[in-house]
């Protein structure tokens, strides 16, 4: 052990970690300089794997797989670019790029079958064939590590169809089915029943330079300038909140618990019961019903055609309808031209019930990407999302300990699926005529994950009156600065604009409502009439940890089911 208290093993691990981050940065630069070089994507995928980001590894390997298709098909849009990028690499087994000299692939493509081998004698065809199997290896093992077993099986099966004797893929398939039996608690597992969703790291990535210092005077001044018009009796200030816990704990009865700093809304003047606290308009909305009667911009119900100020259609794509001229003009100004006539209207619409929430998060991401594209800015720099905290954990808490004396792996908290985090976002970008290779600075998978982390727990949703499913969602950046508490002093309604108002009565003991100057505005992101266990399960899924507000702690410590002392008249 050295003088700083670190063992040589720990120092080596730290050095390896920083070396990997440096390597990732170098490869990202290389990809930006040569965006059609599939070898660079595979190399960065391996770095991501070694850093403990299997989701990002799967994303890079998937882009590389798409590029192998470009190489192998002359009719594809980027065929020549992808071929040219491979010219500097050798295809002979002894001189393959290092990332392809892995296991059985060292022998080249001689064992590939079913038309998956090289499509001609050119060296780039040989490289593309071998690289495709390497892509399948990385995608399948990475998705397995994320817990996305169905997609892992799909890509492992495709790899085995190309290279049936590949030992790495055979072993991965065994692991997928073993994990499937464990998770489903069955001896015989139907592939259709394998879980599609897993969890990944929810963090501010070490290379993310877009996350602001939310507590700086500059940030607070900017936020309060914007807030003045929508919540004149409030101010954004730094708040001290309980730290969310991973699960059950004996700390519920403690008088002092761990806290963290977050932004919050505070009253600067007294606010009477029933008085409006905030009135906020947002274009960051989503609707997962195809051709439903909602405004494309604000998400409110469209007025009848007979109304004096009836709905307004886009003049170029008649299927897109707005509730009035204001929403039409705002949409044209801020996002709609990026989607107009791009054939994206049906994507993620009318989903199965189990995918209703996921489709709304995806459509919020699509709207955000359209806003960023039209406004020619980075998605994470948009004001609609920039200052939202995504309930991130530190990279250190998320990291997989690589030391010889490592303990159990961490509990990751960001829900993840191949379909919603990788495949469909890239598909939408292609529909929008965006080059998914040259635009990686704006459209990398870690950017999508960061957006999802910010949406979850802060997006509000409205349920359909027909079937009770969530079908419209929105992100209101100032509304979600009002922190969650299960004994809130405000309630809200969203109908075109998000309106917060002071509760007439509090949930606990039916105490009088109203908010005094200096008090924090406490919002509610879930149904506060639920029992404490269900509220905490909601928080675990949306915020990444159990709610530790005073009401939850008191009810849990008392063994209360969470329904006592509630005001039955106000939700």
UniProtKB/TrEMBL annotation:
Gene3D superfamilies for this protein: SET domain
Record InterPro entries: H3K4_H4K5_MeTrfase (IPR050869), SET_dom (IPR001214), SET_dom_sf (IPR046341), Znf_MYND (IPR002893)
GO CC, one annotated term: nucleus
Keywords per UniProt: Metal-binding, Zinc, Zinc-finger
Domain of life: Eukaryota
Domain named SET: residues: 234-526
Pfam families: SET
GO molecular function terms noted in the UniProt entry: zinc ion binding
Identification of the protein by name: SET domain-containing protein
Lineage: Eukaryota, Fungi, Dikarya, Ascomycota, Pezizomycotina
């Amino acid at each position: 052990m050295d003088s700083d208290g670190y063992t040589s093993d720990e120092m080596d691990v730290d050095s390896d970690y920083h070396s990997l981050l440096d390597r990732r940065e170098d490869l990202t630069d290389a990809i930006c300089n040569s965006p059609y070089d599939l070898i660079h994507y595979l190399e960065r995928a391996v770095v991501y794997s070694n850093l403990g980001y299997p989701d990002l590894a799967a994303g890079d390997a998937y882009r590389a797989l798409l590029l192998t298709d470009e190489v192998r098909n002359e009719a594809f849009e980027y065929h020549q670019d992808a071929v040219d990028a491979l010219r500097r690499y050798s295809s002979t087994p002894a001189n393959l790029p290092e990332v392809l000299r892995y296991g059985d692939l060292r022998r080249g493509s001689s064992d590939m079958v079913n038309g998956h081998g090289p499509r001609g004698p050119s060296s780039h065809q040989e490289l593309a064939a071998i690289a495709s199997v390497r892509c399948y290896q990385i995608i399948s093992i990475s998705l397995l590590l994320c817990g996305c077993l169905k997609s892992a099986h799909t890509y492992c099966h495709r790899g085995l169809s190309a290279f049936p004797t590949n030992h790495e893929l055979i072993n991965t398939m065994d692991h997928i089915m073993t994990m499937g039996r464990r998770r489903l608690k069955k001896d015989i597992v139907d592939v259709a029943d394998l879980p599609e969703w897993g969890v990944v790291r929810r963090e501010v990535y070490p290379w993310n330079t877009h996350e602001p210092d939310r507590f700086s005077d500059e940030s607070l001044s900017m936020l309060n300038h914007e807030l003045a018009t929508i919540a004149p009796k409030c101010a954004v200030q730094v708040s001290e909140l309980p730290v969310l816990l991973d699960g059950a704990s004996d700390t519920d009865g403690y008088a002092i618990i761990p806290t963290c700093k977050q932004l919050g809304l505070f009253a600067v003047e007294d606010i009477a019961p029933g008085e409006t606290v905030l009135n906020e308009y947002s274009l960051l909305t989503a609707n997962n019903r195809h051709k439903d009667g909602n405004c494309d911009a604000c998400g409110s119900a469209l007025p009848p055609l007979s109304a004096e100020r009836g709905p307004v259609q886009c003049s170029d794509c008649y299927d897109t309808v707005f509730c009035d001229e204001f929403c039409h003009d705002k949409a044209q100004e801020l996002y709609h031209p990026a989607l107009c006539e791009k054939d994206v209207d049906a994507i993620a619409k009318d989903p199965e019930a189990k995918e209703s929430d996921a489709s709304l998060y995806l459509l919020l991401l699509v709207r955000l990407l359209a806003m960023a594209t039209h406004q020619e800015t980075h998605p994470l720099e948009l004001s609609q999302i920039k200052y939202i905290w995504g309930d991130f954990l530190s990279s250190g808490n998320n990291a997989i300990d690589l030391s010889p004396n490592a303990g159990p792996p961490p509990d990751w908290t960001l829900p993840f699926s191949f379909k919603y985090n990788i495949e469909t976002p890239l598909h939408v970008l292609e529909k929008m005529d965006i080059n998914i290779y040259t635009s990686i600075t704006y459209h990398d998978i870690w950017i999508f994950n960061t957006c999802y982390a910010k949406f979850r727990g802060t997006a509000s949703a409205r349920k359909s009156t027909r079937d009770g499913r969530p079908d419209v969602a929105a992100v209101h950046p100032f509304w979600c600065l009002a922190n969650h508490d299960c004994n809130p002093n405000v309630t809200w309604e969203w109908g075109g604009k998000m309106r917060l108002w002071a509760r007439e009565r509090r949930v606990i003991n039916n105490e009088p409502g109203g908010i005094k100057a200096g008090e924090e505005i406490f919002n509610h992101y879930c149904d506060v009439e639920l029992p404490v266990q269900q509220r905490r399960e909601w928080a675990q899924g949306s915020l990444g940890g159990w709610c530790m507000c005073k009401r939850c702690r008191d009810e849990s410590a008392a063994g209360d089911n969470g329904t006592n002392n509630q005001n039955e008249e106000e939700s």
